[in-house]
Amino acid sequence: MISIKNPGEIKLMRKAGFIVAETLALMGELIKPGITTKELDVAAESFIRKKGARPLFLGYGGFPATLCVSVNEQVIHGIPGNRELLEGDIVSIDVGAEKDGWCGDAAKTFPVGKVSPEYLRLLEITETCLMEGLALATSQKRLGDIAHRVQSIAEDAGYGVVRDYTGHGIGKQMHEDPSVPNYGNSGRGLRLSKGMTLAIEPMVNMGTHKVKTLADGWTVVTEDGLPSAHFEHSVAITSNGPTILTIL
Amino acid sequence: MSYVSKEQAVVIGQLVRSIAGRDHNHYYLVCGMDKEGRLLYLVDGIKRGMNNPKPKNIAHIQVVNKVSQQLAEKIAGQSLSAIPLEEIRRYIMQMDIDV
Q: Which one of A114, A178, B50, B60 is most buried, counting C-beta atoms within 10 A?
């Protein structure tokens, strides 16, 4: 069931989203060669709790951490651990927070130190996919319009868009209907309307779209071992067009 | 955190509900699927058994977060045609839904 939020509820979601955005900004400051993914996780958890919010991922379906930290070929849902970030890596940080019963969810892929131009291009294209896709999150457009825009930008650049995982509706729960795929045909799918809140999250692989899950049951990696980038924003559809909830 | 797509979420033994077609709101268990996971083969223990499962597009079902482990184990054990309709019906009844 798709829940429609009124302006007051969207304001509450913006509060949760703001904490998520601040956490991502903090991660951007902390990420440097030599830091372990666990250290990032600890910093994020204490920051979110200090803000009076609850880490959304911790315990979700048994996930053991506050952040999903996915390095290079890891696409999403990487579990923080003792892996040290190295110069030239790219690291995707996915974070969610719940404040006053409302959720916010966002992700960003950061370069660690100086990275190669190919990696930087992957990050730029993926961010473009997200921003162009969410610009179409207006009433009367359809889910397929967003999906097609994301897919065409990524595939025109020679990259693959992950199909096995999708964006989602967001609200009082982290995962609500509808699911927001990153591939599809324009003009098809659910018609969007005012008051819907969506988490749009293109996951773009440098190689093919194929992914597999590691034995830990969470970490998703590219099948060909090439790097992958992930950008995400929670967006509310309002009468003035899309409003990004997880931005500073 | 990303959402698992329907194709990834559905497993053998999964309970699903039809959301399109003349069988709208009818519950089934998944007994098979094609390679991409787009076409599911469904049984209900009433009209559809292991010998004549209903093929249905994944877009036309809703995934219910329940899996019949008994059916999954039977199918893994390859004793397909040996599962009578009553048994499938019993598996669905055990899932505690209003069928």
A: B50
